Amino acid sequence: MLQSLLSGDMPRSRILAVILVAILVCLALAPFLFPGVRTVDTAARICVFILLVASYDLLLGYGGIVSFAHTMFFGIGAYGVALALTHMGRGFGPIFVGAGAGAVMAAALALLIGLFSLRVRAIFFAMITLAVASAVAVLVSQMSGLTGGEDGLTFKLPRALGPAFKFGKEALGGELFGVTLNGKLLAYYFVFAGALVLFLMLLRVVNSPFGRVLLAIRENDFRAEAIGYRVVYYRVAATCLSAAVAALAGSLYAVWLRYVGPETTLSMELMIDILLMVVIGGMGTMYGAVIGATLFVLAQNYLQTLMGAASGLVEGVPVLPQLLSADRWLLWLGVLFILSVYFFPTGVVGRLRGGK
Amino acid sequence: MTAAPKHAPKMAELSLAQRLGPWMPVLLVPALVVLGALAIPETSSWLTLTVSGLAMGMMIFIMASGLTLVFGLMDVINFGHGAFVSVGAFVGVTVLLMLGQMTGAPSLGLNLVALMLAVLGAMAATGAMGWAFEKVIVMPVYGHHLKQILVTMGGLIVVEQLIIVLWGPEEIYIARPESLKGAITFAGAALEKYRLVAVVVGLVVFAAMRFVLRRTRIGLIVRAGVQNGEMVQALGYRLRRVFVGVFIAGSALAGLGGVMWGLYQEVITAHMGNQAMILIFIVVIIGGLGSVEGCFIGALLVGLLQNYVAFLEPKAALISNIALMVAILMWRPMGMIPVVKAK
Questions:
Q1: Domain positions in chain B
Q2: Which of chain A's residues have a Cβ under 8 Å away from the Cβ of B278?
Q3: Is the predicted ipTM greater than 0.85, yes or no?
Q4: Distance of CA B23 to the CA centre of its chain
């Protein structure tokens, strides 16, 4: 049962298994274990980012392709849901239509970019995605008639996912373990379930023969081609799949936030965050995405407070307060990023699995 | 027994298309200029746009040339190249602000001296930084593209953040030196003086690069290294040293480009290098990774097209560069002047 659910890709390390189970339990019971607006919001962000990072890992860790357009696909999914809900009225139909359309469009765009760049050399892909993604980000903020420009779009979810919707009044008195049963809770579980199902699907993909071929291509594309696999097809397919899943993650994020905007879905900072999550968690393993995203989102929320405190401690010393100020946390993440690429290319998961 | 067929060798002259083939990329630039002249009714605005397009192209070329050479020589792709642009701009602008009296004086000589000092300061700073960047960040990941992209991207983040630590998070506004402000009128068209200077500087840099690469011994080694590095090493040259030299020179050029770009926009931010990288990548890709000439032509094409399109249809200017890249990659998938590797 567990074997088939995880597609035979067991954690292979006791500590890793414990951590993963702990994360799963925490996320599954987040609204009950940590009631509070901010903590549940953090949990939902972790769910979305686990999925987003896992889809990026399919490209980077398994395909060996660096893309800087992953936030673009993420944004396409988010805007898909936002536009559908704005123009088709509130309901579950528009959510699925928007998410589906977003995923299809992301895959089509990925196909185009992939066919242009990957047939020549994989390194072109990194540069071209960087150019295209920044052009799209500017385009979205300029087409304010459709996308709301810099302000983004705020939209209404179906009534069942809003905080005003209460249920279980008769059976449970409207509460369960002291937590109000409302639409926000349902929205959280909508996001959680979506992320979990898609994550397990990605796990299935990377442990299929297709995933093995991707690994072979990553290790030596010349040899893989010689054995008879069409390297370009596999790479393009991985790109499309990863783009579609990223778009779905974007849809989930839009459902959770009830808002989309260029800052939250398309910015270059977000792309760098994703890169950091993949590398810190561990490239080439889906569990790396879980660990990386969880660590990073927690750090993002709580490390800045810590750094602010540290900056207060060294008040009076020249330069140091600026270096440690809460706004400079990206500096330290950059350093951490470089060090982890050098010294822990397999990330936390690779370490836990015994330097494999 | 049949007679042997008549042996009549004939030197077939190459068709016009075949002879034109290698020159096509070079001809694209005048073709685009002529196209612009046809599309834009007023000659004066066409002239203004052409000059500003050329100026923009020259500046992009200066920034991009180092990146393409570094890639050609050592197969190293430096996503942190934009950091040198930013650092160059900040150092150069700091020098210019310190020389306030010289830039404020309405004398061309004093202004140029101040500008030269700023450029020298910026190039020295970015050259030194390039040396450190190569040693610390790039060297451990030779021959591993994936790690190169990740690590140099990390380097870019760190440098950007350090700029913010040193110079503060606000953007800095900078006025051009007094005698480079304003425009001159030529044939009814207003030509900004600074853009003319940028065109001249770009041409000088390109000519100097051509000269070094084609006429000097070190240029010979560099070109040979691009074609077949192992063979050059087997002949006894320390290609690593040459490479470090090229990396430093490329970084210094990026610094020069940064100063010029900053003065062109009259405002500098820590992220300006990252934004310039997008144009730089487009130019390097359409030129053919590793080719200086291709990079030059690509930069001029991008600069001209962006200015023409921005005039004719402002909304389309954003995607015009992407469209150009797509068109050129459909025509020549490896870029306009692909570098032939002997490996």
A1: 62-331
A2: 130-131, 134-135
A3: no
A4: 20
